[in-house]
Amino acid sequence: MDVYKQIVDVLTIIVISVGGGGILLLGVASLISKIWSEVISIRTKARHDQKLEELRAEISERQDFLNASLSSLSTGYQESHKEIILALQTLWETVLEIRQFVSPFIFPYTVLVRNEYSGIPVHEIGNGYIADGMPRISEEQFFKALPVKDSEIEKRRLFVGEKLWLMFQIYNALSSRLAYKVVKVLNEKNQIPEWDKDFEGRPDPFFNSLSVILEENEIKQIIDIFEINTPQLLLSAVEEKILGEMNELIFGRKLLKIRFEERQKIKTLLEKEQRSAQSE
Q1: Are 229 and 117 within 8 A, CB to CB?
Q2: Are 178 and 142 in contact (CB under 8 A)?
Q3: pLDDT tens digits for 170-190?
Q4: Nearest to 193 by CA among 107, 126, 109, 98
């Protein structure tokens, strides 16, 4: 109940009790209750003001903390993003090195359909011109010359993410496997196995890993439509997926959502950067 009302009620009872002479007392009481009401109001306002100031100080403190945190995060993000860009550049340069290294060895798979090389000794394919035009290298030299043996790319694995790292590993394994098949038969003067078969003519389990990166319908479409150059087209499809994952890390959106022209531009710029680095 309101304090002022309580005072008035009590004094009213007194006035009624003492008669008309209580009017003066009622006036004094009204004045006292008014003063008391103002005192209460001032005290209440003071408490509210104090609470408001405390709240403002707390908000200000939290805002300062938030600003400092955001600034720290922004600086950290910028620094880590630089590391991510560098790691992706190193990885893509390695992809290009792998492609350049294996291309001469998988040449028969890019220009011949299956029945033009399957079951035929490599030195008899194309009257020997195919074998004569390919680099001669021992198996030992081949493994020593592989672009990925350690190195720089492994150190930057932290910044490329496990998904992209797995895609890169599969790409490297498949490319090297295709090249090794040809290197081996060139040295043994044997028959080139079909690109998706092992040396015994059985399905090559290496190519099961393609399903980790490419959809089943994507693999089937390439194999069904392109009878020639199939392995290289599959590797190119994996490269596209690698680029897409890189693009998402850099720009925050998948490459598949970017127009074809933009995608090709990114690929061209990366390859141009690689050529520029090699010429220096």
Answers
A1: no
A2: no
A3: 999 999 999 999 999 888 888
A4: 109
Would you call 97 exposed, middle or buried from its count of C-beta atoms within 10 A (0-12, 13-18, 19+)?
middle
Q: How confident is the model at residue 71 (pLDDT cuts 50, 70, 90)?
A: low
Q: Is pLDDT of 195 > 80?
A: yes
Domain boundaries, the chain: 3-71, 83-279
> How far lies 190's CA from each of 80, 112, 138, 184, in Å?
51, 17, 14, 8
Question: Any idea which residue has 């022209």 for tokens?
Answer: 261
Name the residue type at position 80.
S
Residue 226 Ramachandran class (φ > 0 left, ψ -120 to 50 alpha, else beta)? beta
Write the DSSP assignment of 221-257 as a string of letters: HHHHH-SSSHHHHHHHHHHHHHHHHHHHHHHSS-GGG
Task: Quote the tokens at residue 193.
Answer: 């196995």
Residue 77: the pLDDT is: 47
Cβ density class 99-138: b for 16+ within 10 Å, e for less: bebbeebbbbbeebeeeebeeeebeebbeeebbeebeebe
> What string of DSSP letters covers 46-61?
HHHHHHHHHHHHHHHH
